[in-house]
Specification:
By secondary structure, the chain is an alpha/beta fold. It has a single domain, classed as NAD(P)-binding Rossmann-like Domain (Rossmann fold), CATH 3.40.50.720. It is built from 11 helices and 6 strands. Strands 2-1-3-4-5-6 form a 6-stranded parallel sheet, with helices on both faces. Helix 1 packs across helix 10, helix 4 packs parallel to helix 6 and helix 6 runs parallel beside helix 7. The termini are far apart. The structure holds nicotinamide-adenine-dinucleotide. The site of nicotinamide-adenine-dinucleotide has 26 residues, from helix 1, strand 4 and helix 8. It comes from Chitinophaga skermanii. This is Enoyl-[acyl-carrier-protein] reductase [NADH]. It catalyses: a 2,3-saturated acyl-[ACP] + NAD(+) = a (2E)-enoyl-[ACP] + NADH + H(+). It holds the Pfam family adh_short_C2.
Length: 271
C-alpha cells in the first residue's frame, strides 16, 4: 500500500512504546507512505521500551521529551527542525497515562495530585506541544496535528475513570488551538476517537476485555484496529484533507452512532 501520500513530508511521532502502540504502527505507516520522521517519548519509556528497533526500521532519530517538560519540548522541536532542515509538516500526539487508574483508585476516591499529573500528561500536554511549535513557528502551512482520544469524553464508561475528563479536555484544546493555529498558519488540529485496542495504555483500563468485546459487537464494522488507525491518521497528515480541522473524528467501525446492535440485543434477551 505505497501511495506515497506523505512523500516529502516530515513529522514528529510521540508515544511509540512497543509494537502494540498506535504510535508505533503510525510511525511505520508514515514512513511507508514516503515521510521522514523523528520519534520521541519520555526518557523513562525510552529506557524501558523497544524504540531503538523502530528507529532503525524507520531510519529515524529518537529525541527524548517528557510531554510535561517545556525545556524538553523546546529541545525536541528545535532539534527536529535542525534535523529536517526546516519546519515539520505533521505531529502525532499519542500519549496518555493515569496514575489513579494504575493504582486502582476508583473515580469516587481520586488522589488529586495524581489527577493533576494525569491531566498534564494526557491533555494539557497537547497545549504544551502546540504552544511550543507555535512560538518556534515549527509547523508548515497546512501542517497537520492529530491527537488520539476515546469516546468516554462524550459518554460514560465508568472504568475509564479520570481519563474521560482528560480526553474531554484534550478534545477541547484541539478545537481551541485549532482556531489560533488555523488563523496563524493554516495548521490543522484534529482528534481521532479510536476503538479500544489492546496496548499498554489500553490494558491499564479495568475490565478492558469487556470494553473491547462490547464495542466489537455493537459496531457494524467491528472494532477498528491500530493498523487501521494508522491508515486513517496518514490521510489526515496528507494533502487530501487540507480543509479538515478542529474536529473530533470517530474511527470506531460505527460504534459512536449505535444505540443497540442485534447481537447485543440477543444477548440481553437471553439473560
Ligand atoms: N488503546 C486504546 O484502546 C485506545 C483507544 C482510544 C485512544 N487511545 C489513545 O491512544 C494513545 C496511545 O495509546 P496506546 O493505546 O498506543 O498505548 P501506549 O501505552 O503504547 O502509548 C502511550 C504512550 O504515552 C507515553 N507517555 C506516557 N507518559 C508520557 C510523558 N510524560 N511524556 C511523553 N510520553 C509519555 C508512553 O510512554 C507511551 O508511549 C493514548 O492517548 C490513548 O489514550 C487508546
Amino acid at each position: 500500500m505505497a501511495q506515497n501520500l506523505l512523500q516529502g513530508k516530515k513529522g514528529i511521532i510521540f508515544g511509540a512504546l512497543d509494537e502494540k502502540s498506535i504510535a508505533w504502527k503510525t510511525a511505520k505507516r508514515c514512513v511507508e507512505q514516503g515521510a521522514q520522521i523523528v520519534l520521541t517519548n519520555a526518557p523513562i519509556a525510552l529506557r524501558m521500551g523497544e524504540i531503538k528497533k523502530l528507529a532503525e526500521e524507520c531510519n529515524a532519530p529518537v529525541i527524548p521529551a517528557d510531554v510535561t517538560n517545556m525545556d524538553d519540548l523546546n529541545n525536541l522541536f528545535t532539534k527536529s527542525m535542525e534535523h529536517f532542515g526546516g519546519q515539520v509538516d505533521f505531529v502525532l500526539h499519542s500519549v496518555g497515562m493515569s496514575i489513579n487508574m494504575r493504582k486502582g483508585n476508583p473515580y469516587t476516591d481520586l488522589n488529586y495530585d495524581f489527577t493533576q499529573k494525569t491531566m498534564d500528561i494526557s491533555a494539557l500536554s497537547l497545549h504544551r506541544v502546540l504552544q511550543t511549535a507555535y512560538k518556534l513557528d515549527a509547523i508548515s502551512e497546512y501542517g497537520s496535528v492529530v491527537a488520539l482520544t476515546y469516546i468516554a469524553a462524550q459518554r460514560v464508561f465508568p472504568d475509564y475513570s479520570e481519563m474521560a475528563d482528560a480526553k474531554a479536555m484534550l478534545e477541547s484544546i484541539a478545537r481551541s488551538f485549532g482556531y489560533h493555529y488555523g488563523v496563524k498558519n493554516k495548521v490543522r488540529i484534529n482528534t481521532i476517537s479510536q476503538s479500544p485496542v489492546r496496548t499498554t495504555a489500553g490494558s491499564g483500563v479495568k475490565g478492558f476485555d469487556g470494553f473491547v468485546n462490547y464495542a466489537d459487537q455493537m459496531s457494524p464494522l467491528g472494532n477498528a484496529s491500530a493498523d487501521q488507525c494508522a491508515d486513517y491518521t496518514v490521510t489526515l497528515f496528507s494533502d487530501l484533507t487540507r480543509m479538515v480541522t478542529m474536529q473530533n473524528l470517530y474511527h470506531d467501525g460505527g460504534f459512536s452512532s449505535m444505540g443497540i446492535s442485534l447481537p447485543v440485543a440477543e444477548k440481553m434477551a437471553s439473560e
